[in-house]
Amino acid sequence: MLRHFFSMSLASFRKAPFATLTNVTTLAIGLVSFVVAYGLVAFWARADEHLTHNSDRTFAIASRSMLADGSLLHSLTPGANEFLAQYLRTDFPELEAVARARPLHDDAPIAAGERTALLNTVSVDPEFSTIFALPFVAGDASTALSHPGSVVLTQDAAARLFGSENPLGKTVSFANRIDATVTGVIAPIPEPSHFGRSFAAILPFDVLTSMDVFDRYSPPAGFEQWFGCCNQTYVLLPADGSLRASTLEASLSAFVARHAPESQLSFGDLQLSLTPISKLLALNTELVLGGDLPLSTSLLLFGALILGVACVNYASVATALVARRARDAGVRKAIGARPSQIMLQHLLEAGLQTTVALVIAVVAARAVAPVLARYTGVDLGLSLSVTPRFALFVVSLVLAVTMLAGAYPALVLSRIHPIAVLRPAHDPAKTRLLSKTLVGLQFSVASFFLILVIVVYEQNEEVERNIAATAAAPVLAINNDTTLTGVAPNTLAAELGSLPGVEAVTLIDQPLAATGGSVVSRTADPADPRKDVAAYGVSYDFTRVFGLELVAGRAFDRAQGGDAVRSADGQSNVLIDRALAHSLGFSSPADAVDQLIYLPASFTAMFGIDRALALRVIGVVETKSFSILGDADEGGGTLYQFVRGPYAAVARLRRDEVSSTVRSIDALWSRLAPGIAVNRKFLDDIYDREYSSYARLGYGVRALTLFAVLISAASLFALGLVVAARRKREIAVRKSLGATSKQVLLLLIRDFSVPVIIANLIAWPVAYMAAERYVSMFVNRIAPGIPLFVASLGLTLAVAWVAVGAQSVRAARANPARSLRVD
User: Fold this and answer.
1) How is residue 292 annotated by DSSP?
2) Per residue in 327-372, pLDDT tens?
C-alpha cells in the first residue's frame, strides 16, 4: 500500500509542479529559520558539559540587587561579590568544593623576557581545577594552581610569550611588578563554554593565575562590599546528596542576612540564587542582548513563527487546490477507498515535501555555519551533527510540520462525498474564505517582522549617528591601571599634553562606554526623594576633550585649586548635566550652580561611610550619554565628580596629525613603561565593540523578515494562479455583462488586499510592544510612530500586488467566450 501511496504522490507532484516547488521552497525557508534557531539554543544548552563530569552538581552563584526604594541596582547577573566563598565554606561544610574566579584584567600587560603581550587574565582558587576539567597539555592539572605565584597559559598565550620554547617553569612578569611561574599549559577551551570565545562568554581568558596574584595586584579593601557583582563563585554539591541545590538556594537569603553588613542591607536588597553551569552561557547571552524574555525562547519563537508562515502557505495552496483534486478523491472513494486512506495519502505527500525541504534546510544551515561562527562564536556544526538527540529532533520536526501543514487539506479531501463532486459548479471545500484567512495569517507575521526590522534598522541608525557624533573628533583612550603599569596618571596626562598633535587630555575612572551608577538627593534628609544617576569620575579639560558644552557655571579648573580635593567634612565639587538639574527641581541650569546636593547616607554606607556627603555644583553641562545602553532618559541624569582613581587617560588628537601623534604616544609609553605593551583604543572603536551585538541582532531580524515576506509573496503568487483559474467563469460572466478589464483587475486586487490590510491591523499592537521593548534598551532611542506602521502597510500591500498582479491582469484580459465554453 505504501508503494501505491508513493506512486500516487509522485503523480500528483507531476500534475502540479509549480505548487510543489512553491511548497518545498517555502517550507525550506521556514525550516532553515527554525533549524538555525534550534542550533543556537542547542549550542548554548550543552555549554560546559565537557569541562566537568559533574555538571548536574556544579552551580554558579548569581545575584540580583535592588535599592531600598525598589529601583534596580543590578539585574540578575551570573556573578556576585568576592566574599561569598569564605562564608560558604564555613556555613556549608558539606560542599565538595567552592572556588572563585576573579578577572584580573581584560588586557593585563605580561612580559616574558623581551616579549610582551596584553592578555585576558583571570585569578582562581585552587579548587577551580577540582570543579573544572581543563584541557591540560602540559603540567599537573591537580596542582598547577595550588601554589602561590602560579600561572597557567593557553597554548596561544604560551606561543606569544615563549614562541616554540617549553614555558613550564619559566617566569612571567605582570607589569614588571609581579613575577609568577608557569605551571601549566592548556589547549583552547572546547566550545560551547562560558570560558570560550563566543560573544556572550562570561570569563574568556588567556591566562589563569593563583588567587594571590590578584591580591598582590589589587589589595583587599578595608571593608566588605556585598553589592559587587564582578566575581564568579562556583560550588560543587556533594555526590551523596547530603546538600541539594534546592536546599542551598533556599538558605541563601538567611546566609546574606547573617554575613552582609547591616548598613549595606539598609541600603538595598541582595538576592542570591544558583545557576546550573550549563545555563551560564545562555543567561549571559540574554544579558548581552537584553530583554525579559529568555533569548533561547525568543529565538525558537521567531523561528517557529517563520516556520508557521511556511506551514500556512502549504495549507493555503493545498486548500485552494482542493477543488481541482476533489474529483480524484471522489472517484477513489466511489471505488472503495476509505477516508483514512485518502487522508494518509495526502499526509504522505506533505511528509515527502517536508522531508525534502528539511534536507535542503539542514544543508543551508551548515553552509552558513562558518559565517555564524565568525560573528557570534556559535558553531552550528556541533548542534547539527548526527547524534541521537539531533535524529530525534529531525523526526519530531518532520512529523510536526507534516501535521501542521497537511492535516487540514487532507481532512477536507477525506470528507468529500463522491456524489457531490460530480456536480459541475460545485465547490465542495468552500475554501475561498479559508484561503483569505490563511493569507491573512501569513501577512500578520510578515507585517510583524517588517515593523520590527524597520524599528531595529532605525534604532541602530540612531545609535550609529550618536556614535559618530560622540566620536566626531579623534579621541584616543590609553588605559593606565597604575597598580599594573606604575605610571602616575598625572605624569601620563602631562606628558601626553606636551605632544604637538594632542589638543587636550583628561582622566577618567572607568572604561569609556561603561556607566557607573550613583544616587543623589536634593537634601541630606533620608526622606528626600533620591535620583538614580549615571556617574563618572573625570578630570581637567574633560569638556574640551569630549566637546561637551558648558551651559552654566564653570568646569573643573586647575586655577581654582579646590576641585581635586575634598573638604574636611567630605564635601567636593561636581558637575551635573542639564537633565540632572531638571530632575532635582532646579528651575534653570544657572539656579543649580553653587548649590549643594547629596550622596545619601544609605548610599555611602556601601563604602563604609556613615553619613551623607555634600556635593557642590560648580557647573552644568549639556546632557550627553557616554554609553549606548541604559535608561538615562528615565533616570535622573549624569553626575561628574573629580576623578579619584583614574582608569585611563583620554587624549583629543589633531585630525590632520593622527598617525604621527599615535606613533608619538607609543614612543612616549615605551619610555614611561618599558616592557609593558600599550593598551590604547579610539573612542569609535570602543563604541563599535559595545554596539556589535545589536548590529548582529539587526542582521538576524532582517533575515527573518526577508524569509517571512518571501514565503508570503510566494504563497500569494501560487494562490493567485489557483484562484484566477477557479474564478475564470465568474470573471467571464462579469465581462459578458459589461465589466471592463480594469474593473475586473481592481476587483481581484481588492480581494487579495483585504486580508493583507486586516493582517496588518492584527500585527500592529504586538509589533508595537516588541518595538518598544527593543528601543527601551538604548539611551538615545527613536519613537515608533504612525508613519512606521503606514510604511509597513504600504510595503506589504506592494508585495501582495506584485505577487498577484500578473495573474490578475491575465485573468482580467481573458476572452470570456473561451472561459464559458463547456469542455
Assistant:
1) S
2) 565 555 555 556 666 677 777 777 888 888 889 888 888 888 887 7
Which residue in 266, 261, 265, 285 sits closest to 275, CA to CA? 285
Dihedral pair phi/psi, residue 275, rounded to 5°: -120, 120
Using CA of residue 783, residue 787, residue 788, residue 790, what is the dihedral sign?
Answer: positive
Helix or strand holding residue 661 (H, E): helix 658-672
428 has a pLDDT exceeding 60? no
Asked whether 171 and 161 are in contact (CB, 8 A), the reply is no
- One-letter identity of residue 337: A
> Distance between CA atoms of 274 and 288, rounded to whole angstroms?
20
> C-alpha angle 104/108/110, rounded to 5°?
125
Strands 530-538 and 550-553: unpaired
Please say whether the beta carbons of 364 and 27 come within 8 A: no
Which pLDDT tens digit goes with each residue over 361-397? 888 888 888 877 776 667 777 778 877 888 888 889 8
Full DSSP string of 341-384: HHHHHHHHHHHHHHHHHHHHHHHHHHHHHHHHHHHH---HHHHS
Is it the case that residue 155 has pLDDT exceeding 70?
yes
Phi, psi of 376 (to 5 degrees): -125, -10
pLDDT confidence of residue 190: 84
pLDDT at 513: 60
- Of 262-266, 342-346, 672-676, 815-819, which has the strongest mean pLDDT? 672-676
With a CB cutoff of 8 Å and minimum separation 6, the contacts of 362 are 35, 384, 394
Closest to 213 in 3D by CA, of 120, 84, 128, 124: 124
Cα(675)–Cα(165) distance, integer angstroms:
20
Lowest mean pLDDT among 203-217, 481-495, 691-705: 691-705
Contacts of 304 (CB under 8 A, 6+ apart): 34, 37
CA torsion through residues 683, 686, 690, 694, sign: positive
> Is the separation of the CB atoms in 577 and 638 below 8 Å?
yes
C-alpha grid cell for residue 613?
556627603
Distance CA 658, CA 475 (A): 10
Q: Helix or strand or coil: residue 84?
A: helix
pLDDT: which is higher, 718 or 119:
119
Instruction: Please state, for a pLDDT cut of 90, what percent of the chain lies above it.
Output: 19
Do 619 and 542 form a contact (C-beta atoms < 8 A)? no
> Between the CA of residue 274 and those of 200, 233, 237, 294, what are the distances in Å?
19, 10, 11, 17
Q: Which residues pair with 519 in a beta bridge?
A: 532
Question: pLDDT tens digits, residue range 723-768?
Answer: 555 555 666 666 666 667 677 667 767 777 787 788 888 888 888 8
Of 365-374, 380-389, 425-434, 699-708, where does mean pLDDT reach its minimum?
A: 425-434
Q: Can you read off the three cell numbers belonging to residue 704?
A: 527573518
Q: Is the pLDDT of residue 561 over 90?
A: no
CA distance 307 to 711: 10
Three-class DSSP category at 700: helix
**Do residues 708 and 445 make contact, with C-beta atoms less than 8 angstroms apart?**
yes
Q: CA separation (Å) from 814 to 278, 320, 719, 729, 763?
A: 64, 21, 18, 10, 36
Q: pLDDT at position 327, please?
A: 55
Interstrand relation of 572-577 and 613-621 (parallel, antiparallel or unpaired): parallel
> Distances in Å between the alpha carbon of 238 and those of 56, 242, 251?
11, 6, 16
What lies within 8 Å, CB to CB, of 3 at 6+ separation is none
Q: How big is the CA angle at 544 (ends 655 and 108), to the nearest 5 degrees?
A: 75
3-class DSSP state for residue 303?
Answer: helix
The set of residues, in sequence order, having a beta carbon less than 8 Å from that of 811 and lying 6+ positions away, is 724, 727, 728, 731, 744, 748
One-letter identity of residue 813? R
Cell of 811: 485573468
At position 788, the amino acid (one-letter code) is L
What CA–CA distance (Å, rounded) separates 127 from 124? 8
